[in-house]
């Protein structure tokens, strides 16, 4: 058991991310009370069946009343609506944070509604899967993974440290950067890979000469990796695309240029060019593995922490 860090935590949205936080808080004993709020009665009922919190309500306003920490874990396009609902009911001194995959848009949607007497600190844990909903979450999801904060100028240092300590308690490494930079970095390392996956699986599905059953039957592991990403939640990824539009379009333009150059090299039989690129990219994979960021490894990141227990 860890120490109690907050008397009451309110979790707004209890899908993959919200429910993983809830499981960690429960396992580590980080709060006396955990209020869970979600829009749909069915999801709320499921959260209660899974005993993810101590109190349950469909009203986000009701949920935040006595909360010292409020964590908003909803698709980024729903951020403004949640901010509007909770703003008048927040406890003075409360920390309000989120987990959204895009940051400039979340800030634009939420910050204008936040009263002066709360600490609004946007965050983004770089951990997840292609699954969604309260049953998809699991304890330990955030262990040895980065959580990036994009604090606004003038953010209270003590509140920021307290929030970082909370994520450290979940096993995360913490980092800080401005929202625009976050959105550019994430556009290339997370958003584009998902868009490319949606696209390649869509292309395979549209082929007239290869049947769907052949795609399923003969799918090699490379294609299978894409289908995992392309199975990610459509609402979440629609919102990511719409709310990180500029950075994604910038990276897509670069990507298309490089793809055209690769296409030329194949057309003109430029083997050396292909070999040079494939060697360069292999080195990147090796540095990721060396840095201990290879989540495909069987006990990635778990070992060191488990030994510490
Ligand atoms: N899935 C992933 O791998 C990761 C997701 N994120 C971010 O975390 C946030 C939540 O994602 P997940 O937990 O994966 O999604 P999810 O689909 O599993 O859960 C979303 C939750 O938000 C609620 N919700 C949906 N629309 C809403 C609305 N209009 N108003 C209020 N509540 C609403 C749903 O009832 C559900 O409880 C998103 O912003 C996403 O970008 C961040 C890191 C990883
Ligand atoms: O499932 C995967 O491979 C992911 O990349 C999970 C993920 C999705 C969205 C995020 O903002 C962060 C992590």
Automatic annotation (TrEMBL):
InterPro entries: 6-PGluconate_DH-like_C_sf, NAD(P)-bd_dom_sf, PDH_C, PDH_N, Preph/Arog_dehydrog, Prephen_DH. Residues 7-296 form the Prephenate/arogenate dehydrogenase domain. GO terms for molecular function: NAD+ binding; prephenate dehydrogenase (NAD+) activity; prephenate dehydrogenase (NADP+) activity. It is an enzyme of class 1 (oxidoreductase). GO terms for biological process: tyrosine biosynthetic process. This is prephenate dehydrogenase. It comes from Rhizobium oryzihabitans. NCBIfam families: PRK07502.1. Pathway: Amino-acid biosynthesis; L-tyrosine biosynthesis; (4-hydroxyphenyl)pyruvate from prephenate (NAD(+) route): step 1/1. PROSITE patterns: PDH_ADH (PS51176). Gene3D superfamilies: 6-phosphogluconate dehydrogenase C-terminal like domain (1.10.3660.10), NAD(P)-binding Rossmann-like Domain (3.40.50.720). It catalyses: prephenate + NAD(+) = 3-(4-hydroxyphenyl)pyruvate + CO2 + NADH. Keywords: Amino-acid biosynthesis, Aromatic amino acid biosynthesis, NAD, Oxidoreductase, Tyrosine biosynthesis. Its EC number is 1.3.1.12. Belongs to the prephenate/arogenate dehydrogenase family.
């Amino acid at each position: 058991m860890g120490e109690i860090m907050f008397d009451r935590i309110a979790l707004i949205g209890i899908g993959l991310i919200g429910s993983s936080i809830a499981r960690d808080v429960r396992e580590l004993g980080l709060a006396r009370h955990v209020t869970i709020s979600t829009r749909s009665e069915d999801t709320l009922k499921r959260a209660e069946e899974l005993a993810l919190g101590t109190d349950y309500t469909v009203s986000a306003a009701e949920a935040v009343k006595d909360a010292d920490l409020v964590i908003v874990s909803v698709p980024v396009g729903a951020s403004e609506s949640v901010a509007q609902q909770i703003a008048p009911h927040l406890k003075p001194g409360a920390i309000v944070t989120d987990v959204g995959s895009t940051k400039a848009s979340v800030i634009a949607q939420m910050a204008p509604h936040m009263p002066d007497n709360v600490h609004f600190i946007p965050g983004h844990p770089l951990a997840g899967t292609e699954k969604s909903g309260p049953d998809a979450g699991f304890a330990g999801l955030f262990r040895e993974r980065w959580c990036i904060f994009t604090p606004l100028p003038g953010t209270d240092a003590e509140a920021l440290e307290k929030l970082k300590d909370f994520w450290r308690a979940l096993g995360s490494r913490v980092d800080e950067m401005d929202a625009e930079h976050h959105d550019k970095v994430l556009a290339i390392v997370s958003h584009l890979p998902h868009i490319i996956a949606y696209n390649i699986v869509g292309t395979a599905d549209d082929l007239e000469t290869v049947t769907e059953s052949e795609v399923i039957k003969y799918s090699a592991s490379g294609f299978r990796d894409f289908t995992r990403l392309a199975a990610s939640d459509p609402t979440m990824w629609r919102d990511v695309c719409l709310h990180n539009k500029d950075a994604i379009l910038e990276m897509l333009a670069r990507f298309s240029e490089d793809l055209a150059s690769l296409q030329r090299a194949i057309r003109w039989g430029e083997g050396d060019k292909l070999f040079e690129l494939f060697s360069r990219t292999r080195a990147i994979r090796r540095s990721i593995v060396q840095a201990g960021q290879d989540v495909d490894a069987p006990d990635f990141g778990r070992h060191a922490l488990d030994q510490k227990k």
